[in-house]
Structure formats: structure tokens, C-alpha cells
Design goal:
With about 140 residues, the protein is of the alpha+beta class. It has helices at about 10-15, 20-30, 45-50, 60-65, 80-90, 100-105, 120-130; strands at about 1-10, 30-40, 70-80, 115. Strands 2-3-1-4 form a 4-stranded antiparallel β-sheet, sandwiched between helices. The protein is globular and about 40 Å long. The structure holds adenosine-3',5'-cyclic-monophosphate (CMP).
Length: about 140
């Protein structure tokens, strides 16, 4: 099934200058970049984005970390995109991530794990709605090839 999913290159990934390498890994896996931009996240947006983490002890530091610099936000589309992106990113904790995953290769810790990716198709649709206007998405035939 063709799926869409959101990836953010977080401030630690942005500071490490691995934006191009991150995108390259998804494109090499056959996924299409259908939206891409830099954006400064706000407390208001992050409150909704991370509502499921609001009661966690790391919530305030997570919000601060995510606002440290702009992030690079993208929507990726392809057959089974959600699982493919999971596998390419690796688990939240870089220490637990298999070799060759983004988080193993570039991550330092749970807070500094380089990328965010949507947890599910439902989460992806919520995140797309929070970050992208309809005209910023270039899906299917609107890609022009
Ligand atoms: P992300 O996929 O963006 O979703 C929530 C984020 O919280 C997670 O990646 C981590 O970067 C961040 N985080 C910070 N501290 C922790 C922690 N102790 N456990 C899990 N996630 C954490």
C-alpha cells in the first residue's frame, strides 16, 4: 500500500550537517520526497505534536531541544513507507539501533537521535496537517513525471 510519512531532521542532525545524507538514505530506498522545507517549531505546535509525551519527565527538555535550531521537515511517500522509514531510522535509542541505521550512525542519545519519524499512518496524517499546507505536497501525478 502506498503510504506517506513525516520525517524531521532534528536540531542535532541539522547541527551535524547530515541533512543530505539523511535524505539520500530514504531516496536510495526508493521513497519519493513529496514535500520538503525548513521550519522553526513553536511551543504551540510541539504541544500538539508531542501531546502523547506531555506527562513524561523529558517533555520540557524535548520541546526545548526541538526549538534549538530550525528543523528540516519532509513527507516521504512509497509502498510500505512507514515500515521502511522505521527500519532506516532505527529505534529511538541510538545505543539500541542496528549498525547502518541513521540513529546508530549519527545519533548520540535518546534526545539527540537525529530524526523524528511518524509512528503510524494516523500520526503521519496528523503531522502533515500540522506542518504542511495542501499546496506544499507534491503527490503522485502532481510530481510531473
Ligand atoms: P521522537 O521520535 O521525536 O519522539 C519523542 C522524542 O523524545 C524521541 O524521539 C526522543 O528524541 C525524545 N526523548 C528525549 N528523552 C527521551 C527519553 N528519556 N526516552 C524516550 N525519548 C526521549
Amino acid at each position: 500500500m502506498t503510504e506517506r510519512t513525516v520525517v524531521l531532521v532534528k536540531p542535532d542532525g541539522f547541527a551535524k550537517k547530515v541533512v543530505g545524507q539523511v535524505i539520500d538514505r530514504f531516496e536510495r530506498a526508493g521513497l519519493n520526497v513529496v514535500a520538503l522545507k525548513m521550519v522553526r517549531l513553536t511551543p504551540k505546535l510541539l504541544d500538539v505534536w508531542y501531546v502523547h509525551h506531555k506527562d513524561k519527565p523529558f517533555f520540557l527538555s524535548l520541546v526545548a531541544d526541538m526549538m534549538a535550531t530550525p528543523v528540516v521537515a519532509m513527507v516521504l511517500e512509497g509502498e510500505g513507507a512507514i515500515q521502511i522509514v522505521f527500519d532506516i531510522c532505527g529505534p529511538t535509542d541510538p545505543a539500541q539501533a542496528p549498525a547502518g541505521t541513521i540513529r546508530k550512525d549519527f545519533g548520540e542519545s535518546k534526545p539527540k537521535n537525529v530524526v523524528h519519524r511518524s509512528d503510524s499512518a494516523e500520526a503521519a496524517e496528523k503531522e502533515i496537517g500540522l506542518l504542511f499546507k495542501p499546496e506544499e505536497l507534491f503527490l503522485g501525478e502532481s510530481r510531473g513525471f
